[in-house]
Structure formats: C-alpha cells, structure tokens
Amino acid sequence: MMKLWCVGALSLASFYYAQSYPVSEISDVLKKNASAVIRNESTILEINKVDEIVYRNSSAITVINKDAVGFSLPKIYYEKGNTVSNVKVTVYDEKGAKIKSYSKSDFTDVAANSQGSFYSDNRMMYLSYTPTSYPYTIEFSYDQKDQNTVFIPDFTPYNDFNISLQKSSFKIINKSGINLRSKTYDSPFGFASVNTSQEDGGKLYTYQNIPAIDNENMVPNPQKILPKVSFSLDQFSLVGKKGNITTWKDFGLWYYNSLLTPVAASTPQIKSEITALNLSGSTEEKVKKIYQYMQGKTRYVFVALGIGGWQPMMPDEVQKKGYGDCKGLTNYMKTLLDEAGIKSYYAIINSNSSPISFDTDFPKMGGNHVILVIPTEKGNIWLENTSQEMAYNHLSFNTTDRNVLAVKPEGIEIMETPSYSSQQNKEKQILNIQLNRDKTITGNGKFTYTGNQYDFNLAYAGLRQTEKNNAIKNAFSTLDFEKIEMSDFKNNRDLATIDFDLNFKAINYSKMVGSSYIFRAVPIYSNASYHQDENRNLPFENRFSFEDEYEIIYQLPAGYIIEEMPDNSTLSSDFGTYRISFEKKDEKLIVKRFIQIKKGLHSKEKYNDYVSFRKKIMNADNSKILISKKS
C-alpha cells in the first residue's frame, strides 16, 4: 500500500573506491547461509531544515549466488522534489579486479511498484546487471536530497534472510534545530548489537560482523530477531505539509486534518448508493450489507498519488472507477458508512505474517497497510477492504494479533486487532473411504475451515474448476491421486467459513502382506519434515494457534476383518495436544484424530523438543492397521 521508503539495503553512505573487496577476505562465519554479504555500507544523513534532508549513501555487496542478484542490483527510490546526484557503480570479480563502471546515465527510470496496473508518483532508477560468474561485488554510491523529513529510516543490519553483514554505519548530523528523537531496540535474542559514538558533530551508529539468518524451519521474521535504531523529528514535512509528531495525539491530529479530511467529501452519487441499499436492522447488519456491496463493485489496484503516496484517493474517484488501493478503498468504505450514520476509523497497520506492532512510547510515521475499524456496543468490527472474497468482520493472519493506529478527530488511538484462538482457527475433515483389493482407495470428504485456516483456503475462491482440482491435489500430496475433484465450494462471507466436498481415487494406499493388507491410519495430514538440529542458532515461532479435527470412516473390502490396529493414544506438551482413537464398527473402522498447536515464540533450546513432539504425531498418523480375510 504505502510508499516504500527504501533508502534500503543498498543505500548507505560514503565510499572508498581504492577498495576492491576480494571475496577471500570474507570470513567463513559470514559466508555461512549467505547468498550475499554486505561488505561495507554507510549512510551520512544531514538534516538541514524541516523540509530538507540529504542522504549520502554507499554500499558494497558481494553476491555469492543467483538468489541475491535482485537484492544487489543498484536501485534509487525517489519522487517529485528529490534530487539525485553523484551516482557511481563499480563491479568487481571474485579476486577484486574491476570488471566495469557505470554512471547515472546507465540507469533505467520506472514507476516504483511491482503490483501490476497502478498509478504512482513514486519512481525508481535501477541498473540492470547480468552476471557472467559468481561471486562478484557491486559497489554503489549516490547522494539524494529530499524535501520529506517524516521518513527517516530505521537503522538495522539487513531486512531479509540469507544476507550477512561485514560492516555498516549510519551517521546523523542534525543542523535543523529541531529535536531528533531516537530509540534503540536490542535484539531480544542477543543475535547482534549496535555500537554508538559521537563523531564530527553527529552521532554514529555501527554494526559489524553479523551472520546471515537462514530461512530455516519456523524462524521468525528478521525484524523480530535483529536490533534496530528508530528516529523521528518532532517537526516534519511531507510534500509541503508540515506537522508535529511529539506524541501519537499530535501526529494523529496532523494525519486526520492534513491527509484524511481533504479526501472525506461525499457526493450525491454516494448518498444515493446508501439510499438504494435500503438499510435496516442492527449496526452489524448495516455494516455487513454496505461492506459486501463495496466488495462487489471494487477491485484492488495500487495507487500512490498525492502527498507522498500516503493520502487516499477521493471517494468519488473510487465510486466512479471501481478500483483503489487499501487507502482509497478504506476511505470509500468509510465514506459509505458516514452516509449511513455509522462511525468508523481509518486504521494504519503493519501487515506481516509475523506480527509487528507499533511502539506505543515512540511515535513515528510507519505501517504498510490500512484497514477500517467500526466500534459498536458489541465490540469492534474490523474490515479488510482490498479483497473481494474476504468475509465480513474477519482479518487475515497478516493483520491479526497486533496493534493499529486508529486515526480519530482528536488524534491517534492505538487499538489491538483480534487474536484468534485455536478453536477459531479450525479445520474439520470427515472422510468416507472404501478400501479396495487392488490397493486403491475411493472416497469422499467434507472439509470446513475457519479463522486463519479460512485465510489459507481463500485462494481457491478465485480458481476455475480444473485449477481447484490441481491445487487441492498438490495440497493433499500425502495421497497418490489417480483422480480428484473438489465440489460444492462455498466461501461463506457472513461467517468466515470455507466448505467444500472432495471425491477422489488414490492408488498404492495399502500394501499386501501375503493375503492381508496394511495401511496407514490417517490418509491426509501435514507432511512437513522435521529434523533435529543440535546447532540451531535462532528461536522458532508458531505464528498462530490452530485445531484440526478429523473423522475417517474406512469401509473394509467384503470378506475382510481388522486383525491388528494401534492403541488409542494422547500426546501433550508445551506446544499442544494430539489424540487419536480407533473403533471397530461392523465392517468399518472409525479413526478420530485431534491436534491442537499453540501459538508461541520459543527459545532455540526447545526446538528439538518441538521436533520430537511433531515426529511422534507423524508416527501416530502413519501407524499401521492390518486387515485379513475372514477365516
């Protein structure tokens, strides 16, 4: 949604072109798990006045393999009013010998967004470079003058997995006379730390020798592992709009009056839309009807126009054109609610699979998405306005369990989004399976998903029938399907549930042992791999809690009986609970399976305990049943 202020991983300060960066000088510690090594990066940031800030950026990045080519390409993000100068790029081979140099004229200038059809004032210059061999090093420097002083970037070692850092520095020289606040956030796991010192009239922050974070199983987002330093001026400018940000209230007043109020105007056409809906009933019923109306006539298109890309489109533009980004669609929905006499608030949020919240004690511009909150006597209603398929009053796993900045006329109120329990994040699976003598099974099933598990299955809603069948075949890959068909797919946008039926035939499910057959207890389950790791360096995270409840009814082949079956079992740990039971009933075997996994961030020392717990579950899922011919 919002402007990506990427002075970025490539953008950091003054350079020494005598250096050639031979790869042999990189330690084995920094090479481990790294696709790229940031050899030396620097930003010198001069704040001259409320509407002028100058960045002197430089970086040298050694690219180990093709996975980091995109990360290393020189990029400069800018917008109208910025001045970019002194652009230099030099490429070195593995030994540090110069391959080629480039200047600003070699860069391509494009709109700064990769989300397809959109409108944007934000631009990006980039240098396209195709390597002929690996590793190689790109040295990149440029200066940039910016009139926007609200976006001072955080100083963090890097922002992604499989990147290591040799040295990085960030120096701020504040000549503006405006108070500059800063706050250091230590790594909660002691993974790295920042050093601070005074230098030549400014404050210098540095990181050194920080290994890569491998994207290993269940690792949290790097933002939750790494240290950072945040900065914010008490007075700032955004495309000529000046404001204060000493408190969340001050910032909220500016945001409401400068960004939202100018685009809050309704029109006769919007009034007539609400009149035509013939609203009645409770507030909840009215909001649902308006929301689902809005979903039915709009689609998401990225738009980054006006006041640095942070101001929403006018609601009449969205109403006429039928599209908008999260800002525009949320503003349009808010205007519809205003016309219905229902109060709502524009809410800024960090949308991320690993929850990231705003610091209540350190006000600064932030967030990357916008949703809407409607207070009622029965509790808050939350609306995700960018999806045509999302259920009413349902937030996805990318926006639950964190706080938002709700912008009110009197300032910002920090509010918490819902946190779904394991019972709310549920899968229910009922399978009827016929065991056949040719080792195949034929079956039908009913599946229901709620909560965050609703989110993971919402993608099926936009697929054609053949695509649905192929997608579910890949998702349920623990079975070797000969044929499979999803039917009666229903996205219940009132209750946030997804239901569908499945008809299938799978081969090689059972194995013959003489004239008998053995087969596993649970046909469809998670086949994730879990491995012990005595050298794990990082904590692990279950990002949401959930429950799965299965009932599997096996119909035995005619003339066969159950000769052996596992005992019922229960597993309990700090991470969750698992139960499986077996019941003979006439010519059938009924297997019931229940698993509950708790949400949580755990220390690396507990990882092998978790692996052991999940392996025991997989072993129970794969426990064998023996059927034989009747005597």
What proportion strand?
A: 35-45%
DSSP strand count: 38
Q: Can you count the helices?
A: 10
Taking strands numbered 1, 2, ... along the chain, how are they ordered across the largest sheet? Answer: 5-4-9-2-1-10-13-12
Give unreliable regions as ranges: 1-18, 114-118
User: Which descriptor suits the 3D outline?
Assistant: globular
Query: Structural class of the secondary structure composition?
Result: alpha+beta
- How far apart, in Å, are the first and last alpha carbons? 69 Å
The main β sheet shows up as: 8 strands, mixed
Helix content: 10-25%
According to CATH, what is the class of the largest domain? Mainly Beta
CATH-defined architecture of the largest domain: Sandwich
Global mean pLDDT: 92
Instruction: Tally the structural domains.
Output: 3
* CATH domain topology of the largest domain: Immunoglobulin-like
Domain DUF3858: 533-626
Keywords: Signal
Pfam families: DUF3857, DUF3858
Domain DUF3857: 54-210
In short:
The chain is of the alpha+beta class. The protein is built from 10 helices and 38 strands.
